[in-house]
Amino acid sequence: MAETTPNHTQTVRGWAAKDSSGKITPFVFKRRENGADDVTIKILYCGMCHTDLHYIKNDWGITMYPVVPGHEITGIITKVGSNVSNFKVGDRVGVGCLAASCLKCEFCKDSQENYCDQLQFTYNGIFWDGSITYGGYSQMLVADNRYVVHIPESLPLDKAAPLLCAGITVFSPMKQHNMLQPGKKLGVVGLGGLGHIAVKFGKAFGLHVTVISTSPSKETEAKTRLGADDFLVSTDPKRMQACARSLDFIIDTVSAKHSLGPMLELLKIRGVLALVGAPDQPLELPSFPLIFGKRTVSGSIIGGIKETQEMMDVCGKYNITSEIELVTPDRINEALDRLARNDVRYRFVIDISPKSNF
Ligand code: NAP
Ligand code: ZN
Q: 40 with 145: CB under 8 angstroms?
């Protein structure tokens, strides 16, 4: 690495998984110097996405250890490169999943960098200079300014951090399928980090929102704290049947293998299910509920930078933030265990500010 990346001179403290055991340990590494297009960010908060857990455990078989996870990053700019005009020192900013893309293809030109075939992620990616990218479970980040967004003044940086991945991941398909229409009926499958923000977008835009969950214990809170209108336990076939053909749209955020059949039955004729969860095993997709209902199953990955900024501004306007549990870095492993056990309301965020005992 040293010979291919000579300008990686900045020493950074972070946390990394070094094997698939599921544990994180302190890790000191190097980041590049701040280049002409770069900004340097003092990281204050980083959300813990289930994707981090997939990478830490090598669920998808693509992890390059040591991996420093984290792609829900918020902080303050401490340095800007000479080509940077839209950010200045002191700005409150966020970085999500994107670290680099080709900048030339039809998708990059259309602000859909997330569909560029040379896309590189904020961690476990390979940057333009050949170095492996390290994410936000660390004290400082150097990012190309084209992949950085402003955080509205009205949003606290800790509760805004999960918007950089969980927020944009549900917002993008909601927009694409024109879901955000008052009075429409939305189903949200899986009430975790992504799911609870989908509920909030739905309610902010005046939709009727039904949560479809495997956890009966989440019902009261889903209704009182998040404002969900209805709650279905997916393992209760009677209630599921009673709600057949009732929903216009579904967002499926589940992190584990499951059947899409019972979810599709909930959709009206021509309804759309947007899949954003990324289980390591193929999902079951029975043909009958698909063909008899003329229904659509669609996929989506995060969002482009322009849309991420738009989503942030929408969140600023409607005061949408994540429900979080703040953890100090010495408790990351505990938080990962709880995330794996589905015991989080609804996103862990690491407090990386100086007062926390990093
Ligand atoms: P999370 O906070 O762990 O939430 C996932 C939810 O899925 C859980 O809260 C749980 O909800 C449900 N669930 C978990 N295990 C289940 C099982 N065995 N059967 C049925 N339901 C189960 O995870 P997250 O951070 O929201 O991420 C969710 C998934 O989206 C992950 O696979 C992640 O990698 C993926 N993701 C995709 C994108 C993208 O761009 N497409 C971006 C970010 C994340 P209930 O208790 O309500 O059932
Ligand atoms: Zn994520």
A: no
| Residue among 62, 255, 342 whose CB has most ligand 1 atoms within 8 A, to mutate | 255
Residue 252 alpha carbon to ligand 2 centre in Å = 15
pTM score, whole prediction: 0.97
Dihedral sign from CA coordinates of 308, 339, 92, 66? negative
DSSP for 40-74, written as a single string: EEEEEEEEE-HHHHHHHTTTTS---SSB-----EE
Q: Count other Cβ atoms within 10 Å, centred on residue 90.
A: 8
Whether cis (ω within 30° of 0) applies to the bond prior to 123 is no
Most ligand 1 atoms within 8 A of CB, residue of 48, 50, 283 to mutate: 50
User: In sequence order, which residues have a C-beta less than 8 Å from that of residue 3 and are 6 or more positions away?
Assistant: none
Residue type for position 122: T
User: For residue range 199-240, what is the model confidence (pLDDT) as tens digits?
Assistant: 999 999 999 999 999 999 999 999 999 999 999 999 999 999
